[in-house]
Design brief:
132 residues; alpha+beta; Nuclear Transport Factor 2, Chain: A; six-stranded mixed beta sheet
């Protein structure tokens, strides 16, 4: 079962790169939650597909289009810990993305039901129970 979740997450990010937010939404549950990284300015939690999509549209207006590359995927229970690199189409908003980011992706009923963003690996591992 964990390999199925890893493959679903891999397909999710591939869809994001190919078709942006609209393609990614096909993987979301209606009740999806997005959690910004706790240490980000104005960090928030967005609940529901419309709210999460609106948040990403707002980010796109500031940052431009985003493409992600997966460095690694590690299953842990209902979640998959993903190490990503984000590529922006332009330098905008003074945001420096130098190095990897981490997301924990929860899969329920074959859908992405929660994504939590972390800026450091230790916090992401602790959130998924993978910390040593």
């Amino acid at each position: 079962m964990s390999q199925e979740k890893v493959e679903l997450v891999r397909r999710y990010y591939s869809a994001w790169n190919e078709g942006g937010i609209d393609a990614a939404r096909a993987f979301w549950s209606d009740e999806i939650e997005w959690h910004d990284a706790p240490d980000m300015p104005d960090s928030g939690v967005y609940r529901g597909a419309e709210s999460v999509a609106a948040h990403f549209r707002d980010l796109s207006g500031v940052l431009g289009e985003m493409e992600v590359s997966i460095d690694s995927l590690a299953p842990s229970g209902d979640e998959v810990l993903v190490r990503l690199r984000v590529h922006l189409d332009a330098q905008r908003g003074g945001l420096l993305l130098d190095g990897p980011i981490y997301e924990t992706v929860r899969i329920e009923g074959g859908r992405v039901s929660r994504i939590r963003l972390f800026l450091d690996e230790e916090s992401a591992q602790a959130a998924t129970g993978l910390a040593e």
